[in-house]
Design a protein that fits this description.
The chain is built from 34 helices and 54 strands. The protein is globular, with a radius of gyration of 41 Å. The strands form eleven sheets. Strands 7, 8, 9, 10, 11, 12, 13, 14, 17, 18, 19, 20 and 21 form a 13-stranded mixed beta sheet that branches. Strands 22, 23, 25, 26, 27, 28, 29 and 31 form an eight-stranded antiparallel beta sheet that branches. Strands 36, 37, 39, 40, 41, 42, 43 and 45 form an eight-stranded antiparallel beta sheet that branches.
Length: 1496
């Protein structure tokens, strides 16, 4: 077996690779460290990242001018972590082989490590303190303190039957650092790191033992030779070698001590004592002592396990003096959750009795330790009650006091006497392993099992504990020798009595035991003591003299007094830093040490998702011929040339297929241009989606700034795609309903002058792979599935959960029924009014009271609240026409007082009050006739036109508070208007109605001039028609509308008070704008409409003008009503969006097989190995490959991606189409370029007969739009689960697209019945499709031909040397930053009619990306020719997105054509900073802005 070796490769272009050759595998893996976000990339593709040997991998890296800069060899990888803009790879560069466990498991102790720091290209924010913490974490002590084994599980006592990756996390110290490897299912490529000691020794047996053993072996071999005469023909030399090796084996026995530290309560001496919040003691170790002997392939072994640690209750230490001992502080709740620790012990050791040897000092000597002992005893009583355990006992032994009085020999004698009963009862475990000559285990038997656990503790679990463990080990090793038949501890060879030496004195042990075995044991224990002390106190162990007496070559023990002083210095000065190192290394309190990292990953861990095998599936036009693939030129880095498109193209599409499903969050452009920056596109549209024909808009007409060549612009996609929220003024217009299954990205570039060759920027795509807990749990369940019945159990669990939800919903319905009863009672009141009217005792009421809907009946508050708004508006208009000054509050008080005055016991008064309520209710119902969505589409009059937006909103209005209640009521009682219900249920019909309503406000895209109120009303209409934001965007785009004009957020911005005042002065009049009466005295101006009004027409109440961002403003009564309407609309929209969001969060996956698409990569990938004789590979395995366009699929079918699933994943699932589909086209994107050889079809459980066996036309292409036909496969009649194959001919051309056109046979039209009972007629269905071929490296597609010929290179240089036809002249300006309003006013020193654009120099505070400006609104502040007074404000650019760039980068933006020339002089250009990339606007780093004008 070869030794494991990892090579860390750094290339000259800054790329890093890990070349791994594991000892347990015969191939080599190439793991790429992506240099933008640092994620690890591995796809298990032969000759791409899976190779026969290390040399092949190195040759692959060297291709493409990737010169290898450095190579670092290492024995093991500890872990890898990305923090902010840096990645840290921790490797082991030097080890020592200190132990070989039987049969041949090598345990290595780490001697040297190295942390490779990699600077990443993605601009993540991180503070200087966090960078310091990163460096501190990389200095964590590893050498001589940690160990690992590649082939054996060291986290469990010997002999463990678990694999090395099925470990106990309590003892694994690099679990946190292996998360990146887990994500690519390569956890086993990192070692399982344990902290502590693992050392072994060989001990020679006595001559008497060897002679007895040789005699028994000879007798066995002679009898074996007589019985098996045929075996004498074996090779004599081989027999002699085996005999020689066997003799060497049984001439000695093997001893090892494994001391592994728990990571559940890590830390230093005074920071990790007692139990923590995980109910784990500080400085906790599990120790095992193993003795074994190999005789002719029969390995007899004996093992013994015990624990050591601090006192397991809640306590701590407090240092009050630099000289005295630290004070012991008992917690207020010392026994809280104490049972958890003991349950953990009981579970691990199979209910074995637990004996505690407590070494704390007595009360007379040390009162604080005695107090700790008291609480320790009390805790055991609590534990016995909590977990009903009787076999839990404490033995007290004050080692320091007894040792001081009676010396070492006396103290050890008393220790053995005290612990003798427990040691005898516990016994040791013994057994045998039978192995082959290749060290493969054939059989294992356990003869005896240890029957109890001893736990040793002192205050620190250091020096005293180590000594006591050593002296107990002496007795254990004597019993182990007896069990193995070795006389090293009993020269007489008397093996009849167990633990005979427990009655010995220490001197008798010295005289009786073989000195060699005591020496080896002492050597190990001195090292164990030093390691434990180093980890806990950063010094070596104290009180080691008694052990060193048995191994005098180790020298004298260190001075205890000196060590006490040194420990105190360490405690005071360095323990805090070392504690931080422990926590950072283990990933504990991560938010404390790396808060920025958590903010960076708040919405998911950003990954570079356009790495290999990302594919551009549609050809891109080019002016010159490039001998390179589009993806290598425009997505991969280091393309040395510019991609120049043909002159005839006004726009160019770059369509990208990502290597896996993800949530796309960011898009990076690397600008490529020549001398003329106009060759670079100035606009782009971005679309993303699951399939090519199912995409949503990300950006529309996004401004791309002019900038220097190779400038990198990083754009964060909108919240509805990225899931990263933005600070919207009102609400989330696009609704943050993020899909995690995006795979296609379409970027459209345009905006260049005519007859210009466009230079395409390089593109990088970033995204997040969501890890939903629930789907992940189900996925793990599915991996365990071996039969359909187990799948059914998983589904039954889902059904039970759904049943519980149904019961909960039933309870809600009962509550709703009560609301219905209340409404019925209200209707009874109306009928009672009619009875009263018959008595002719009705009272006449004032019209004022009736018109005011302020007196609300108790039985219908919600509907009356809605009607109040409409009635108030109509009342105010009537009042103004009659020159009435009565306000709404006056009406409310009048109605209330009228009813109160008539509240007496007379029958007349009762009738009067009842009639008043009834009239108001009937008025409300009349005005709100559409409360339950009346059929407004069938109203005959023009006023009630079906396309009238205001009427639609009025008739479909409801209380936002009770929306959910009434929606459910409508579903229960079926009282919802059938016409509207039909429209809502038909998506296409709803979109048609929405578009018709849009055209009432904006007849065409060119005449689209919406107001703020219009946009809110259109949003309400959309929500009432149940149209999603993405469907709205598609409809508007398809009809030529610009989506951002329909976003109410874009209409909300701060107006300049001076400009507004100037406008009001211009509109000032001596006549009231509303009632048309003359204003003689004081004039009042409305801050919203800016007109003049009389006293009666100005609202008595101030309000906040939402559109202007103004507070407590004076407005007219009409504007007051309008603003209230806006507020109500916003509130209703937000309520609806919140409810939709709740529904989406509660939405469960309809098809359980879809869960597989959420996770990457598949489990089969980690099993894939490289075969030297393998020439072909599967190219169509999901998710590395995928489906480009959606396919007509039955609602009950698995998704179309199921045809690409590995055969061992959900083998019973398959795809099938709808009943009326006779032909489908499936376009498969292969995982790599390849030359195809055959297609294998695993027939689904339906099988094929003559009615449904389809014809399959097979075509291939390198990229769209051209396909080449390579065969027509008439699929034969097949049984379920058959395997059929079709060989492809003439497919020497490499391809990445395979098109399958499936068509049902013609005879199925006459016979629509299928043999399967579940399906009524022949349908298209497909099992698993396996496409085989030979992978072609994309670098080899064009052979060794240069990327550009010399002729094309000259042509390219000529195009790029074309100079700019216009000149940008900077205008003289003066800038003033108004921090209060987050605005920058750039004043033109000479007023100008033409301002073509601006240049912005991006800045940051302390190079923190979060302080960079993100959104800017630009306005022109205009003035008259004759005065300097500002009189108008024009928004030139409503929202410009400033991408993430390096600090100091200059970006040039040109204003759109309509605003380049304005007749009125421009005095000030105002830049309003709307948001940053994370920080509050108060922390914004204000950029520098310069204005310019263009001249020829």
């Amino acid at each position: 077996m070869r030794e494991t070796q990892h090579l860390i490769i750094e290339t000259s272009n800054g790329s890093f690779f890990i070349v791994s050759s594991l000892s347990r595998r015969k191939d080599t893996q190439l793991i790429t460290i992506e240099r933008y976000t640092g994620q690890l990339i591995y796809n298990a593709q032969p000759n791409i990242d899976l190779f026969h040997s290390t040399q092949d991998a190195l040759k692959y890296i060297s291709k493409g001018k990737k010169n290898i800069k450095s190579v670092t060899r290492c024995n093991a990888i500890i872990g890898y972590q990305v923090i902010g803009p840096f990645a840290y790879l921790i490797i082991v560069t030097k080890v020592s082989l200190d132990l070989i466990l039987p049969p041949n498991h090598k345990v290595y102790t780490i001697k040297e490590t190295e942390t490779i720091k990699i600077t990443l290209g993605y601009p993540s924010k991180i503070t200087k303190a966090e960078i310091k913490n990163c460096d501190l974490m990389s200095e964590f002590q590893l050498k001589n303190l940690h160990f690992y084994c590649e082939t054996y599980d060291l986290t469990r006592p010997f002999p463990s039957t678990h694999s090395q990756q099925d470990y106990t996390e309590e003892f694994v110290w690099n679990e946190h650092l292996t998360e990146s490897f887990k994500k690519i299912r390569m956890r086993s490529w990192c070692c399982v790191l344990l902290q502590g000691v693992a050392q072994g020794r060989n001990i020679n047996c006595s001559e008497r033992d060897v002679e007895l053993l040789e005699k028994s072996i000879k007798s066995l071999s002679s009898s074996s030779s007589n019985n098996n005469t045929d075996n004498h023909t074996n090779d004599n030399n081989k027999e002699n070698n085996n005999d020689k090796q066997a003799k060497q084996n049984y001439q000695y026995i093997n001893l090892c001590i494994i001391c592994r530290k728990s990571c559940l309560n890590p830390g230093t001496r005074y920071f990790a004592r007692g139990l923590n919040d995980k109910s784990s003691p500080g400085n906790e170790y599990e120790v095992e002592q193993v003795l074994w002997r190999n005789i002719e392939g029969n390995i007899t072994f004996s093992s013994y396990v015990w624990r050591r640690g601090t006192v397991p209750i809640h306590w701590s230490s407090q240092i009050n003096s630099a000289v005295q001992d630290a004070n012991i502080v008992i917690s207020e709740k010392p026994y809280e959750n104490i049972d958890i620790y003991y349950k953990r012990l009981i579970d691990r050791y199979n209910q074995s009795p637990i004996t505690i040897i407590n070494l704390l000092r007595a009360k007379e000597v040390h009162p604080e330790e005695a107090n700790l002992t008291f609480h320790f005893k009390e805790s055991l009583k609590v534990v016995k009650k909590l977990i009903a355990i009787d076999q839990l006992e404490m033995l007290e032994f004050d080692w320091h006091t007894i040792h001081k009085v009676e010396g070492v020999d006396g103290a050890v004698k008393k220790l053995w006497e005290l612990s003798s009963p427990k040691i005898r009862n516990n016994g040791v475990s013994t057994g045998i392993l039978r192995v082959t000559s290749n060290n493969a285990i054939v059989d294992m038997k356990l003869w005896k099992k240890q029957n109890g656990i001893i736990r040793v503790n002192c205050a620190d679990s250091l020096d005293r504990t180590n000594l006591v463990c050593f002296f107990i080990s002496i007795q254990v090793i004597a019993e182990q020798c007896r069990q193995l038949g070795v006389s090293l501890c009993d020269p007489n060879g008397d093996f009849s009595e167990s633990y005979k030496s427990l009655d010995y004195s220490l001197q008798q042990v010295r005289d009786t035991f073989d000195p060699n075995i005591l020496l080896k044991l002492a050597e190990i224990y001195v090292n164990v003591g030093d390691v434990c002390a180093k980890l806990y106190t950063n010094t070596v162990a104290m009180h080691t003299s008694p052990m060193r007496e048995f191994a005098q070559h180790l020298g004298a023990a260190p001075n205890n007094t000196k060590l006490i002083v040194e420990r105190r210095i360490q405690n005071v000065l360095k323990d805090k830093v070392r504690q931080q190192q422990y926590e950072m290394f283990l990933g504990l309190n991560f938010s404390k040490y790396f808060p920025s990292h958590l903010l960076n990953t708040k919405h998911g861990e950003i990954r570079y998702v356009s790495n290999y095998p990302t594919y551009i599936f549609k050809s891109i036009p080019k002016e010159v011929s490039y001998n390179i693939t589009e993806e290598r030129a425009l997505i991969r880095s280091n393309f040395p040339y510019h991609w120049v498109c043909q002159r005839d193209y006004d726009f160019v599409e770059v369509q990208i297929y990502l290597p896996f499903f993800c949530r796309v969050t960011e898009l990076a452009l690397t600008i490529r241009r020549g001398l003329n920056d106009n060759t670079s596109p100035s606009k782009m549209d971005v679309f993303v989606g699951t399939h090519l024909d199912n995409m949503v808009m990300g950006f529309q007409e996004l401004n791309i700034p002019r900038c220097e060549d190779l400038t990198k612009l990083l754009y964060t996609l909108p919240p509805q795609i990225s899931g990263i929220p933005e600070n919207c003024t009102l609400y989330d217009f696009e609704v943050n309903n993020v899909s995690p299954i995006m795979r296609v990205v379409r970027v459209v570039f345009y905006g260049i002058p005519p007859c210009t060759c466009m230079t395409i920027p390089q593109i990088q795509v970033f995204g997040v792979q969501d890890r939903y807990t629930q789907p992940r749990e189900f996925y793990l369940e599915l991996l365990k599935v071996s039969s359909q019945q187990e799948v059914k159990q998983v589904l039954d669990t889902l059904e039970r959960q759904q049943l519980e939800k149904s019961k909960k919903k039933a309870l809600e319905i009962k509550a709703l029924e009560k609301e219905v009863l209340k409404e019925e009672e209200a209707e009874k009141n109306i009928s009672m009014v009619n009875e009263l009217l018959k008595d002719e005792t009705a009272i006449e009421f004032s019209p004022t009271i009736i018109d005011s809907s302020s007196s609300v009946s108790d039985f219908d508050k919600s509907s009356n609240a809605s009607s109040t708004r409409t009635t108030t508006r109509r009342t105010s208009i009537q009042s103004n026409n009659m020159h009435s000054s009565t306000s709404q509050l006056d009406l409310q008080s009048a109605a209330t007082s009228t009813l109160n005055n008539n509240n007496n016991n007379s029958i007349v008064a009762q009738k009067e009050a009842l009639y008043s309520n009834a009239v108001l209710t009937s008025l409300t119902k009349k005005q709100m006739s559409g409360f339950i969505f009346d059929d407004y589409f069938e109203q005959p009059s023009q006023e009630d036109s079906p396309h009238n937006l205001e009427l639609f909103l009025e008739k479909s209005k409801f209380s936002s508070d009770n929306y959910n209640t009434y929606t459910k009521l409508l579903e229960i009682t079926n009282e919802q208007d059938e016409t509207l219900k039909t429209i809502r249920n038909d998506k296409n019909l709803a979109l048609e109605k929405y578009l018709e309503i849009v055209k009432t406000k904006a007849q065409s895209p060119s005449l689209c001039s919406l107001t703020f109120t219009d946009t809110l009303e259109l949003e309400l209409a959309r929500l009432k028609l149940f149209i999603s934001s993405s469907d709205r965007d598609k409809t508007l785009l398809n009809n030529g509308y610009k989506v951002d004009r329909f976003d109410p957020n874009n209409y909300v911005y701060s107006r300049d008070p001076k400009v507004e005042k100037s406008i009001r002065n211009k509109l000032q009049s001596s006549t009231c704008h509303l009632c048309k009466t003359g204003i003689k005295l004081r004039k009042h101006s409305c801050r919203y409409c800016r007109h003049s009004f009389c006293k009666n027409c100005i609202s008595k109440n101030t309000c906040d003008i939402i559109e202007f961002n103004w507070k407590n403003s004076t407005v007219c009564i009409e504007c007051f009503t309008t603003i209230e309407k806006q507020k109500e609309a916003i509130e209703e929209i937000q309520k609806q969006l919140d409810e939709d969001k709740t529904k989406s969060q509660q939405h469960s996956f309809e098809n359980i097989s879809r869960l597989f698409t959420e996770l990457y990569p598949p489990i089969s990938q980690s099993r894939k190995k490289m075969d030297k004789h393998e020439k072909e590979t599967i190219l169509s395995e999901f998710p590395s490959s995928g489906i480009l366009s959606s396919v007509e699929t039955s609602s009950s079918s698995s998704p179309i991606e199921m045809i690409l699933f590995p055969p061992d994943i959900l083998p019973k699932e398959f795809w099938y189409s709808t009943n009326d589909t006779k032909e489908v086209t499936i376009i498969i994107v292969l995982q790599a370029y390849a030359r195809l050889s055959k297609i294998v079809l695993l027939v689904d459980p339906l099988g094929y007969n003559e009615d449904d066996a389809p014809k399959m036309e097979i075509s291939i292409a390198e990229r769209l739009p051209t396909f080449q036909s390579v065969g027509l496969w008439e699929i034969p009649i097949s049984k379920p689960n058959d395997t059929i194959e079709y060989k492809l001919l003439n497919t020497t051309t490499p391809c990445r697209l395979v098109q399958l056109k499936l068509k049902l046979p013609d005879n199925n039209l006459q016979n629509d019945n299928l043999q399967n009972n579940t399906l009524q007629k022949a349908i298209l269905h497909l099992g698993r499709v396996l496409i085989y071929g030979q992978v072609v490296n994309e670098e080899n597609l064009y052979g060794t031909i240069p990327i550009l010929s010399s002729q094309h290179q000259l042509k390219l240089e000529e195009i790029l040397k074309t100079k700019l036809s216009i000149q940008r002249t900077q205008l003289k300006t003066d800038s003033k930053y108004i921090k209060e309003f987050n605005t920058l006013d750039v004043t033109l020193l000479q007023a100008s009619n033409i301002v073509s654009g601006f240049r912005i120099n991006v800045t940051r505070n302390q190079d923190n990306i979060s302080t960079q400006v993100k959104h800017i609104r630009v306005s022109f502040m205009l003035s008259d020719d004759n005065s300097n007074e500002l009189n108008s404000q024009i928004v030139v650019e409503n929202r410009i997105i400033i991408p993430k760039v390096e600090t100091g980068t200059s970006l040039i933006y040109e204003f759109s054509t309509p605003h380049q020339k304005i007749n009125v002089p421009i005095k000030i250009v105002r830049f309003e900073f709307l948001s940053t990339y994370g920080s509050h606007l108060n922390e914004l780093s204000c950029p520098q802005v310069f204005l310019f004008t263009n001249t020829l």
